[in-house]
Amino acid sequence: MKTLKLTPMVMIVMGILGGCAPKQSQVPELVRVIQVQGRQGVACDGRYYYVSGSTALYKYKLDGTLLLENTDPFADITAGDPRPNHIGDIDVLDGEIYAGCEYFMDGVGKNIQTAVYDAATLEYKRSLPWEPESGQKECCGLAVDRGRGLVWMADWVDGTCLYCYRKDSGEYVGKVALNPAPALQQGIFCLDDGKILISSDDGDADADKPDHLYACNPFKGRSLAKEAATEMFMEMSSFTKAGEIEGLTINPLTGELVVLSNRGARIVLGMPRGFYPGYDSEIHELYVFRTVFPDVFPAEWIVPKGEFPSKATNGSAAYAALEDQGADSAWVFHFPARKIPRGTFVEFDWSMSARKGDWEHYRAEYSDGGEWVPIKEFDVLYGQSHPATELSTVRLGNTIRNELKIRLLPVHPDSVSNVSSAILTRKAYTGAKALLLGNKAPQDSMKVLFLGNSNTYYNCVPALMKEIAWKEGRFLDIEMSTKGGQTFAQHLTLTRTMALVRKGGYDAAILQNNTKPMVQVALFPEEGAPLVQDCVDLCDSIRAYSPGARIILERGFPYSGKDFWGAGGWEGMNEALDKTAEIMSQAAGTEVSPIGQASEKARTLRDDLVLYQSDHAHPTLTMSYIKACVNYLTLCCPDNPSFGPSPADCGLDPELAAWLRGLSVEAVRNNNL
Hints:
Blueprint: H1 8-11, H2 14-17, E1 29-36, E2 41-44, E3 48-53, E4 56-61, E5 66-70, E6 86-93, E7 96-105, E8 108-118, E9 124-129, E10 141-145, E11 150-154, E12 161-166, E13 172-179, E14 185-190, E15 196-200, E16 212-216, E17 219-220, E18 223-224, E19 227-235, E20 243-250, E21 257-263, E22 265-268, E23 271-275, E24 283-290, E25 300-303, E26 319-325, E27 328-340, E28 345-353, E29 361-368, E30 371-379, E31 388-395, E32 400-410, E33 423-424, E34 432-438, E35 444-451, H3 454-457, H4 461-471, E36 474-481, H5 488-491, H6 495-503, E37 508-511, H7 515-523, H8 525-545, E38 550-554, H9 570-588, E39 591-593, H10 595-605, H11 621-636, H12 654-669
Parallel strand pairs: 13-19, 35-36, 35-37, 37-38, 38-39
Antiparallel strand pairs: 1-24, 2-3, 3-4, 4-5, 6-7, 7-8, 8-9, 10-11, 11-12, 12-13, 14-15, 15-16, 16-19, 17-18, 20-21, 21-24, 22-23, 25-34, 26-27, 27-32, 28-31, 28-33, 28-34, 29-30, 29-32
Helix pairs in contact: 4-11, 7-8, 7-9, 8-9, 10-12, 11-12
């Protein structure tokens, strides 16, 4: 059976992934109901609930405390005519709320648009247009596909299709027909793997018949499907009598399914028309469901980025909490599991830094048979931009049941009082994760040092590379120093970098420079000479403590952010990166990893790929996977680049991952730098 790479958003629909509704034992459990204002939609970023009314936006703490409201969300909207008067279901991403707005009256929608609001203030920021020729008649809600940079819209009036737009530009991409089309759609939510949940007001409140959730996959391979089969995911029998389902979301921190429901009002053509007996007003509630442990043991658990939660949360998602364990206080990671057999290799990676006053020495341990077993000791540094990222592999001595627990324990008593100031890495690298590697140990091993900046720690490229290598029968023992924005000159002065260099014993080192000097060396040779010397000096330092180590210089990927650093465009930037990689590698005696060649092929051959973050500079997981694949091939098999029969997809769509590996093999095979 194929092993799925799961995050909390994907775990909730385990049954759907196999093409069927969840088994009765897997139906999410209702854990609480929270009364709110707003009858249309709900979104969650792990810290807050955002609720939309037809003409308002609200921000709540997770305990239901109202923090903020915007009761005039259309005041600043000037796009189109007539001015919107209705908000449907919403979504939230990167501090922005995406709301489907329109002028809606008696079942007809006009001037449909995606209005974007600031999640911190609920103030309007901008709008994305819709395509009237698409056939969309109304917008009951929208959802953001985080991995592909898309926005999906649903239609309550004519729900035969879902409509797709690009998140950044608003460009219309296309529509996907639903077969069968759920009646009276209200809200949608996009899972990590691209599948979409749909809430449908298809019950009958007068006859006590419940509403339903449905699921579909709008993609066929890498492209939009012409038609997507919909299947029932969940009957909403928990809803109180006279309920009307609305928007839905999933808490990215806990994996909880959250569905908004209204009760009390009689709805005619989507509009409240009087009340049911016993009601004199409509009541709006968030129904929060906890997912259950999957029957199939998950391949990966994730603890989201950001600050540690101050309180433990329950459910099938991993969580971390500060726990008092007698004489010691520690951050303890909980990974739910039915059973992990003894002898299983577990990869546990984390990234951690400290605020001033916190202790810098810690020990990682896991609970094995009731005893805490050491994994490794490590130091953290002050400042969020330079966390200590640790990649560790352990083999379990005993069978683990119910949950795997791993803790980060201060090793000096003076640190305990301030341990709560520790933070997880921000940006795109998940704060901590655990990955099952099976019970077969690789035959080959290699100790590798990574020195770079955010283009390496985004999505933690060394961790991806370690996963790829393990599947190919190789174990990479990795140390890394990846402070944001660093040049080679700055690395020579970084405490963490030089401490790792002095540890020595490396078989190889992979170096990623700041992009700006990589372009400037080619454009301004005389001014760039000191930058080349920085590369030489850094390589000499590595060789002083690791004689004979292979040193690999990354030929980085181009990007349009920062206006190509003066290179004039894609072609100019590629030429500059090639030239500088050649100059530096010859001066310092390094090999070159041709990441840019593979990434540029991907960019030019596939316009549907999202390779860059919204800043048009930092890599998405797709780009980071290219980088990890090219680095792996350059390090482990440059003369005969290839992958085995069961390569690691690292969470990407298998077809896409296979295509990217093909580009990586071609780039390394044709590498002439």
